[in-house]
Amino acid sequence: MPDTASNAIWNMLQEFGFGPDSSLMSDVQPGLRFNFGNFTLSASAVLSRWLQPVVLFTGVLTTSRTITEICFEMPRSEMSNELIAAWIVSNLDNAASGGRFNAMREPDWLALGRQHQHLLPWEIARAESAKEAMIYAARDHCTVDRRVLRFSLNALAELLTKSDPADQVTIDFDGRVLSFRCHGVETLMGATGDAWPCQYRVPAESLSKNLPKRLRQSQVEVGIWKTTLEIDRSRFELTLATQPDAA
């Protein structure tokens, strides 16, 4: 790790009001500490258990009813002052009773950190996960009764035994009926959901070899996710998406 990263964090912590503490074991000397009036937070530059350079923050937070050990790490890499503040405040708030750290002497950077929680890596990952879930929920899909789907898949499997491996199966859903069409023969089943704007195609050979044999739920989802057709837990690579009149 470049020394410049450690120095940048050390300089920023000192701008936050952390003062020197030579009693702390630290790769960057001296170690630092911040006195909140009712709690002292120490910062040491050390290696983590995975031998990665980190800033280790420690302290003991006490109230009239609780004693809480504070111990968390922050990577020693280039960060903005907003992210450094957010990282510290997030851990202090999580450890504090009631989910909010109350300092007797409250510096401005506590508010800065709370305003920038969205910069934290785990908050970014959470937001991305939520966004992905919304996109997934909005994908082209429908729901079919398990008994109906099982009967229809058996019929489709029989049809596929008579197909050439190079044939394509067209999948379509008009808001009421889900259809699988190959060589002009359709396997139809009632389904619920919003009509799909496109028809999709999957190689007959792929479907014939991998149609699901067990269906987990009483209502089974059939849908499109990115470049695959999903039938319950089974996945099939799409070859084409077309407008309904082009199929």
Features:
single chain, 247 residues, alpha+beta, DNA Polymerase III, Chain A, domain 2, 2 domains, 14 strands
H-E string: HEEEEEHHHEHEEEEHEEEE
Number of helices: 6
Overall radius of gyration: 29 Å
Shape: elongated
Number of strands: 14
Helix content: 25-40%
- The total domain count is 2
State the secondary-structure class. alpha+beta
What is the overall pLDDT average? Answer: 91
Measured by DSSP, the beta-strand proportion falls in 25-35%
Strand order, biggest sheet? 1-2-3-4-5
What's the main sheet like?
Answer: 5 strands, antiparallel
Unreliably modeled segments: none
Q: Give the end-to-end Cα distance, rounded to a whole number of Å.
A: 57 Å
Write a structural description.
- By secondary structure, the protein is of the alpha+beta class.
- The chain folds into two domains: 3-133, no CATH class; 141-246, DNA Polymerase III, Chain A, domain 2 (Roll).
- 30% of the residues lie in helices and 33% in strands.
- The chain has helices at residues 3-15, 81-95, 108-115, 121-137, 146-160, 204-210, and strands at 19-21, 31-35, 40-47, 53-62, 67-75, 141-145, 168-173, 177-182, 185-190, 199-203, 219-225, 228-231, 234-237, 240-242.
- The strands form three sheets. The protein has a five-stranded antiparallel β-sheet, with helices on one face.
- Strand 12 and strand 13 (234-237) form a beta hairpin.
- It starts with a helix and ends in a 5-residue tail after the last strand.
- The relative contact order is 0.09.
